[in-house]
Design goal:
By secondary structure, the protein is of the alpha/beta class. It has six helices and six strands, in the order αβαβαβαβαββα. The termini are far apart.
Length: 162
């Protein structure tokens, strides 16, 4: 009986451990679209496509992390790295330096197929940001670097829609 009590304690303790978040999980465009759609009806989603070789991506990254800090429970943030395979470890290190503590993704598959599956209007340029409303429609999207105010303004539109 004592053995059973110890076993149950160990099992319960194991269940209470926080779920490990994975940095740079491989994702196809189809898997990414499914992930985005899984939040439909729950909360808005901001998706940012970036790479370590993209200076504007690196410059705007802190703005997006500040949004996450300020509005964490009100939207889902998804980062997708477009880095080359040989730079994947560098991307992982950059995310750690930025204190990213949630699951992020690494684009797999052919670039053109990935781009067209994600958005018919995206040219493939980085950075690329898409904000989905709670009902799953694209509320805003843009290529190129944005300032914090643009991110916040566009995000607040979908948060306030309710």
């Amino acid at each position: 009986m004592r053995y059973l009590a110890i076993l149950l304690t160990v099992l319960l303790f194991g269940c209470s451990q926080p779920k490990e978040q994975k940095i740079l999980v491989d994702t196809s465009a189809t898997q990414l679209v499914s992930q985005i759609e899984s939040y439909k009806g729950e909360k808005p989603v901001l998706v940012n496509f970036w790479a370590t070789w993209c200076i504007p991506c690196i410059e705007e990254f802190p703005y997006i992390m500040k949004l996450k800090e300020n509005y964490n429970d009100e939207f889902e943030l998804i980062f997708v790295s477009g880095d080359f395979e040989e730079a994947k470890e560098e991307a992982r290190e950059f995310l750690k330096e930025q204190n990213v503590n949630f699951t992020t993704y690494y684009k797999t598959g052919k670039d053109n197929e990935f781009i067209q599956t994600v958005s018919e209007t995206w040219s493939g340029a980085l950075p690329y940001t898409v904000i989905y409303s709670r009902d799953g429609r694209i509320s805003a999207e843009w290529e190129g670097k944005a300032e914090y105010e643009q991110f916040e303004q566009e995000l607040l539109k979908v948060i306030e829609e309710g």
